[in-house]
């Protein structure tokens, strides 16, 4: 059994998609990040970084319980465990390259673009522009790569496609104000639509909908989500 520590945000969404694609049994454990549940000592024992997603596999290597944190690590772990969505062995160098491109580039720059356009105080134009343009640059790199290709790696749908989907789903927030945010990236748009049409996506979108996550951005939420803005008193 997999325990899946979840909040309805892009990085957990990738893992929800994998679990639904692979049809492996799992139990969703809501972590309400706006209430600060990611900072509890019980959750930090599962992810010392205090972020979602994380999983606990009660049947990990050697039959022992294992924790895995960080969406890309979880995707690789589950793909290897199930031998699913890894593509061909000869495409592994490409798979790892694109997974890490998404994990260290497309994802974080998208996240910071959302933060500086929608959460940070007004007037930080330099930061907002930098992250938005870097997100666009990463979109362009992936768009160029997808020319003439259905999927990111080889001929098969892999965890790289799931990983990209998690963040591309938030393109309207990353490129805030754009009517059709992926219109300038036609290969990326086609790729997103291909993945988004999969039946497992609808199931992944339903994960956690039975839980009332906090949506209000009050003082508690701001302190929970952006603790570096509230350094402890010296
Ligand atoms: N590199 C990590 C990033 C995880 C991350 O930033 N998760 C966000 C949700 S998408 C989160 O937990 N935010 C709450 C917080 O930062 O306190 C991953 O890919 O899993």
Description of the structure:
The mean pLDDT is 97. The protein is built from ten helices and four strands. It has helices spanning 10-22, 41-44, 71-82, 92-118, 125-145, 159-168, 171-174, 186-196, 199-206, 219-225, and strands at 2-6, 26-30, 54-57, 66-69. The relative contact order is 0.16. Helix content is 50%, strand content 8%. By secondary structure, it is α+β, with helices and mostly antiparallel strands. Strands 2-1-3-4 form a four-stranded mixed sheet, with helices on one face. Glutathione (GSH) is lined by residues 7, 9-11, 33, 38, 51-53, 70-72, 225. Residues 7, 9-11, 33, 38, 51-53, 70-72, 225 line the site of glutathione (GSH).
- Number of separate helices: 10
Strand order of the largest sheet: 2-1-3-4
Q: pLDDT average, as an integer?
A: 97
State which percent range the strand residues make up.
Answer: 5-15%
The tally of beta strands, per DSSP, is 4
Task: Using the alpha-carbon principal axes, give the shape.
Answer: globular
What can be said about the biggest beta sheet?
4 strands, mixed
Rg over CA atoms, rounded to whole Å, is: 18 Å
